[in-house]
Amino acid sequence: MTRKYEEIERCDCDVIHEDVVYEVKKKMPREETLYDLAELFKVFGDSTRIKILWALEEAEMCVCDIAFLLNMTQSAISHQLRVLKQAKLVRSRKEGKIVYYSLSDDHVRQIFDQGLSHINEG
Amino acid sequence: MTRKYEEIERCDCDVIHEDVVYEVKKKMPREETLYDLAELFKVFGDSTRIKILWALEEAEMCVCDIAFLLNMTQSAISHQLRVLKQAKLVRSRKEGKIVYYSLSDDHVRQIFDQGLSHINEG
DNA sequence: ATAATATATGAATATTCATTCAAATGTTCA
DNA sequence: TGAACATTTGAATGAATATTCATATATTAT
Fold first, then answer.
1. Degrees to nearest 5, angle at CA A12 with A11 and A15
2. Which of A32, A117, B58, B66 could connect to A24 by a Cys-Cys bridge, CB 3.0–4.6 Å?
3. Do the Cβ atoms of A50 and B37 come within 8 Å?
4. Which residues does B13 contact at the CB level (< 8 Å), separation at least 6?
5. Bases along strand D below 7 A from a protein CB
6. Gap from B58 CA to D22 C1', in Å?
7. CB contact, 8 Å: B53 with chain A?
8. Mean pLDDT across chain A, nearest whole number?
9. φ, ψ for residue B34 (rounded to 5)?
10. Biggest distance spanned by C-alpha atoms of chain B
């Protein structure tokens, strides 16, 4: 067979609808964009972080509060807050020795809502 | 200190804003709901699956087509399609020995859009 | 029936990652 | 200054999982 994509090496099977694939390939976003998107959703893909985000949607809280709410160690919460902060989903504010966390924007609620409506239709 | 939640054992620090935490706790969804939500986002949290979903948004395709498009083995794609199908994000249709996959609903696009708008604001 | 092809599947491997534990940092207060 | 406390951080451990490889299943054509 002849292939339009001659650089392809890892694929071990014949393409069946080459023209369709070719059109789809042209419309795909940049590799990097798709990677970033996956990285963002990976952050949402952990129930501890989901709980933290959901909680912060209700109120600003400090690390101890969240640890207490979720019945987890303060260290575990702190590690997860760092992940959330790196993803720019939460921001922090320091007041003395206490660090308050809150959501950094309102996408979280909208992403949750879309996810929930998918779940609730199954 | 006295705690309203006496069953809590794993938390190793004092709660600071007990009333806030108490109110937040009342508003939290069921544990199972939050778990399911995390499981759903976990499915989105892999760039191979993101690529598959994005591709299927453009056109229905068979396993070979997708493997060819993404330059991956047919086996790897098949494994990931199973994950997507279990999450009810894709559905399949068999025509002879060829299995065609497509998106099962339109939440995928909306979830992508929310994710992208978060990324593009950073 | 046999060959060829499309897909699925199970085991193995390698990597990623959530939590724990111990220790460090930074802040308040006596 | 030193004790107490809130938080952070780094290393270690164990669990989850993406891909590969080999093989199985199913369908079509000869």
1. 70
2. B58
3. yes
4. A63, A64, A67, A68, A74
5. 5-11, 17-23, 26-28
6. 33
7. no
8. 92
9. -65, -35
10. 69
Q: What are the pLDDT digits (tens) for B2-15? A: 344 444 567 777 88
Residue A1 pLDDT greater than 60, yes or no = no
For residues A88 and B122, is the Cβ–Cβ distance under 8 A? Answer: yes
DSSP per-residue codes, B17-46: -HHHHHHHHHHSPPHHHHHHHHHHHHHHSS
- Residue bearing the bigger pLDDT, B4 or B78: B78
Domains delineated in chain B? 34-119 (1.10.10.10)
Taking only the tens place, the pLDDT of each residue in A19-53 is 999 999 999 999 999 999 999 999 999 999 999 99
CA angle A86/A91/A93 to nearest 5° reads 130
Which residues of A fall within a CB distance of 8 Å from B37? 44, 47, 50, 112, 115-116, 119
pLDDT tens digits for B87-114?
A: 999 999 999 999 999 999 899 999 999 9
Paired with A99 in beta bridges are A94
What is the C-alpha to C-alpha distance for residues A37 and A39, in angstroms, rounded to an integer?
Answer: 5
For residue B56, give the nearest of B95, B105, B98, B94 by alpha carbon. B105
pLDDT tens-digit readout, B26-47:
999 999 999 999 999 999 999 9
